[in-house]
Design goal:
367 residues, 15 strands, globular
Length: 367
C-alpha cells in the first residue's frame, strides 16, 4: 500500500489535533507530522485544551451530528478510564440540575439537551437515573445523575503525544500565515499529500481559511484542592446570562475545577476577581461538601485562577474536506466548549474525509 505524508496543523497541539494524529498514526500507510505554535506544557489563553475541565456531559441535540460524535467518543474515553490510568481519566458520579428559567440564556442554551428530562443519552451513560422531585433543591425543576469521566488535561494531552511518538509521529513548532504553507513542513522533506487543519480560533485569521464564523468564548475558572466527591453542573445561575456553574475533580490529584463563564466575543485574558468570587460562592452553595461544615468560600484551598477561550463556531464545528489550489485540506475545528467529548467522533470523520479526498473525492467547501 502506498504511503501518504500527512501534516496536522494546530495553532496549538490541542485535543482535536492530537486525537486525529494518534488515530492516523495507527495506520502504517500514514506518515504524520504535527506542527503547532503551542505544545502540551504551554499555557496560553489561545491554547484552550489545557484549561478545560475536562469531562463528558452530552450537549448535542438528539439525532444531530454533534450527538453522533459524542456517541462515538464515549466508548474510547470509557475504555481509557477503565484500562489506561496513565492517561489521566477517571470515572465520577455526575449530577445535572435544570432550571426552566434558564431556557434561552447563553448557558441554558449550551446545556439544553444535557438538562432535559428523559434525556436522549440515558441509554448510553452508565447508571443513569432521574432524581425524584422531592429530593430536588429549591429552584431546581428536574435533575438526572449518571456515571461519566473527568479528564486531567495536564496528563492526558502529554499522554496523547506519547502515543503519537510511539507510532512515529514527529512534532514541530511553527506558526503558519497561510494554510498552504503547511505542505512544506512534513518531516520527510517531501511535500505533504494532505493537510488536516485543527487550528481552532486561529482559523479565523489563517490565510486560505479565514473563517469569520468563529468566536472566542471566554471561560473563567478557579482550581481548588477541595474534593466534593461528585461532578456537578447546572443549566445556569442568577449571576448573569453568561455565567454558569460546574464542578469536576480531575484524576490523579489534578485538583477540582469550578466554573465558570460563557462570555462570547470576550478575549480578556485576566481573571476577574469579582467573577471569581461569584464562581466560588455558587459552587459552595451547590456543593457544601466542598468545604468543612460552616465554612464559606474561605474554606476553598485555591490552586490558581485561570481563563481560556473556547473556539465557538456559528453553525457548529467545521469537519469538512476542502481544496486550496491543488492542496487537499480537511478541517476539524470550532468545537466550542465540547472538544474533548467529541474528539474521537470528529477525528474519525476527519480521517474518513481525508481518505476520500486522497482518492479524489472532495465536495465543494460550504464555508
Amino acid at each position: 500500500m502506498a504511503s501518504h505524508n500527512i501534516v496536522v496543523v494546530g495553532a496549538s497541539a490541542g485535543v482535536a489535533g492530537l486525537t486525529t494524529a494518534w488515530i492516523l498514526s495507527q495506520d502504517s500507510s500514514k506518515v504524520v507530522t504535527v506542527i503547532a505554535k503551542h505544545m502540551p506544557g504551554d499555557y496560553d489563553i489561545e491554547y484552550a485544551s489545557p484549561w478545560a475541565g475536562a469531562n463528558f456531559m452530552p450537549v448535542g441535540a438528539e439525532n444531530t451530528r454533534l450527538a453522533k460524535w459524542e456517541q462515538e467518543t464515549w466508548p474510547p474515553l470509557r475504555d481509557l478510564a477503565e484500562h489506561y490510568p496513565e492517561a489521566g481519566i477517571h470515572f465520577q458520579d455526575t449530577l445535572i440540575y435544570n432550571r426552566q428559567k434558564d431556557r434561552g440564556s447563553a448557558t441554558g442554551s449550551w446545556f439544553e439537551s444535557l438538562t432535559k428530562p428523559n434525556a436522549w443519552y440515558k441509554n448510553m451513560m452508565p447508571n443513569f437515573r432521574s432524581i425524584a422531585s422531592y429530593k430536588l433543591p429549591p429552584g431546581i425543576d428536574n435533575a438526572q445523575a449518571f456515571t461519566s469521566v473527568c479528564i486531567n488535561t495536564a496528563l492526558y494531552l502529554p499522554w496523547l503525544v506519547s502515543q503519537c511518538l510511539k507510532n512515529g509521529v514527529v512534532f514541530k513548532r511553527g506558526v503558519l500565515r497561510h494554510i498552504k504553507d503547511a505542505v512544506g513542513f512534513h518531516h520527510s522533506g517531501n511535500h505533504a499529500d494532505a493537510i488536516i487543519n485543527c487550528t481552532g480560533l486561529s482559523s479565523k485569521y489563517l490565510g486560505g481559511v479565514d473563517d469569520s464564523k468563529l468566536h472566542p468564548v471566554r471561560g473563567q475558572i478557579v482550581v481548588v484542592r477541595n474534593d466534593p466527591g461528585q461532578m456537578m453542573a447546572t443549566s445556569g445561575c442568577d449571576d448573569g446570562d453568561d455565567e454558569t456553574l460546574y464542578i469536576m475533580t480531575r484524576a490523579a490529584g489534578g485538583g477540582t475545577i469550578i466554573g465558570g463563564t460563557y462570555q462570547k466575543d470576550d478575549a480578556n485574558p485576566l481573571p476577574d476577581p469579582n467573577t471569581a468570587t461569584r464562581i466560588m460562592k455558587r459552587a459552595v452553595e451547590l456543593s457544601p461538601k466542598l468545604v468543612q461544615k460552616g465554612q464559606g468560600i474561605e474554606g476553598l484551598d485555591v490552586i490558581r485562577h485561570a481563563v481560556g477561550l473556547r473556539p465557538l463556531r456559528d453553525g457548529g464545528p467545521r469537519v469538512e474536506a476542502d481544496r486550496v489550489g491543488d492542496l487537499t485540506i480537511v478541517h476539524n475545528y470550532g468545537h466550542g466548549g465540547y472538544g474533548y467529548q467529541v474528539s474521537f467522533g470528529c477525528a474519525n470523520d476527519t480521517i474518513a474525509l481525508m481518505n476520500g479526498a486522497l482518492r479524489g473525492h472532495v465536495a465543494k467547501s460550504k464555508l
